[in-house]
């Protein structure tokens, strides 16, 4: 799967391979046991594959879709050897991601004619939201873009302080008013400052309190409304950050946040610390929201723009294969 090889550096690929290692080892370890003594893809193999995909946090609904597609290929091709299963699996999962609007996107680019490009970031505490914003800032800056941050998660003092630290670290200004201030006022000031300073990207952090979903919905709606006083079509992107290591819990968070506000893109973090990498496939399929970024390590460069071709290749390629 080298179709996008020229767009995907060897360093990035190496980072992706390493970040998905636990998921890959878990998957192929289980698959190897299921295929012992088997030469053809029969009902027993498919039943075992179904169980393995579900246990890899792909999700039941998405797993059934994948199994059905493989069954159709088995019926069409009459004879499929287990040696071909890896390739077929890659093709069907990549096809599924493509149908779900998860494309191979350009690295840290913003649409032409959208300046400043406003990103509102949502997600519960602990998923790596503020860290993701910091890494995004660094990546956009590296691409030569002028970035400004708005610390509108005023519910937690730690969130404001952490964002300020990231701002200092990557040389990006942060608009902040401290804890317990009106988040929409922070967002308004940040967008206005971004326009005044002619920045390319404005990233607004917001509080994530799912246990008060009605209040969260009202707060996010208000933040959007005040930003639109400055830029009528802001925010251009609502980015939901999810912790991939929580598996099906990330699915639940996505379900709740998509009820509370319109989400247009996903960032799935902490994939390097888990064997639950399959959750990326399930979330993309269930919500039909493009996965835009994935986190596969601690370093700034380990926050990657999502490339479905390379992701599937890394996740479903045996070591040395």
TrEMBL record:
<protein>
    <recommendedName>
        <fullName>Signal recognition particle receptor FtsY</fullName>
        <ecNumber>3.6.5.4</ecNumber>
    </recommendedName>
</protein>
<dbReference type="Pfam" id="PF02881">
    <property type="entry name" value="SRP54_N"/>
</dbReference>
<feature type="binding site">
    <location>
        <begin position="205"/>
        <end position="209"/>
    </location>
    <ligand>
        <name>GTP</name>
    </ligand>
</feature>
<dbReference type="InterPro" id="IPR003593">
    <property type="entry name" value="AAA+_ATPase"/>
</dbReference>
<feature type="binding site">
    <location>
        <begin position="269"/>
        <end position="272"/>
    </location>
    <ligand>
        <name>GTP</name>
    </ligand>
</feature>
<dbReference type="InterPro" id="IPR000897">
    <property type="entry name" value="SRP54_GTPase_dom"/>
</dbReference>
<dbReference type="GO" id="GO:0003924">
    <property type="term" value="F:GTPase activity"/>
</dbReference>
<dbReference type="GO" id="GO:0005047">
    <property type="term" value="F:signal recognition particle binding"/>
</dbReference>
<dbReference type="GO" id="GO:0005737">
    <property type="term" value="C:cytoplasm"/>
</dbReference>
<keyword id="KW-0963">Cytoplasm</keyword>
<dbReference type="Pfam" id="PF00448">
    <property type="entry name" value="SRP54"/>
</dbReference>
<keyword id="KW-0378">Hydrolase</keyword>
<keyword id="KW-0675">Receptor</keyword>
<keyword id="KW-0547">Nucleotide-binding</keyword>
<dbReference type="InterPro" id="IPR027417">
    <property type="entry name" value="P-loop_NTPase"/>
</dbReference>
<comment type="subunit">
    <text>Part of the signal recognition particle protein translocation system, which is composed of SRP and FtsY.</text>
</comment>
<dbReference type="GO" id="GO:0005525">
    <property type="term" value="F:GTP binding"/>
</dbReference>
<dbReference type="GO" id="GO:0005886">
    <property type="term" value="C:plasma membrane"/>
</dbReference>
<dbReference type="InterPro" id="IPR004390">
    <property type="entry name" value="SR_rcpt_FtsY"/>
</dbReference>
<keyword id="KW-0472">Membrane</keyword>
<keyword id="KW-0342">GTP-binding</keyword>
<dbReference type="InterPro" id="IPR013822">
    <property type="entry name" value="Signal_recog_particl_SRP54_hlx"/>
</dbReference>
<keyword id="KW-1003">Cell membrane</keyword>
<dbReference type="InterPro" id="IPR036225">
    <property type="entry name" value="SRP/SRP_N"/>
</dbReference>
<dbReference type="InterPro" id="IPR042101">
    <property type="entry name" value="SRP54_N_sf"/>
</dbReference>
<comment type="similarity">
    <text>Belongs to the GTP-binding SRP family. FtsY subfamily.</text>
</comment>
<dbReference type="GO" id="GO:0006614">
    <property type="term" value="P:SRP-dependent cotranslational protein targeting to membrane"/>
</dbReference>
<comment type="function">
    <text>Involved in targeting and insertion of nascent membrane proteins into the cytoplasmic membrane. Acts as a receptor for the complex formed by the signal recognition particle (SRP) and the ribosome-nascent chain (RNC).</text>
</comment>
<feature type="binding site">
    <location>
        <begin position="123"/>
        <end position="130"/>
    </location>
    <ligand>
        <name>GTP</name>
    </ligand>
</feature>
<feature type="domain" description="SRP54-type proteins GTP-binding">
    <location>
        <begin position="290"/>
        <end position="303"/>
    </location>
</feature>
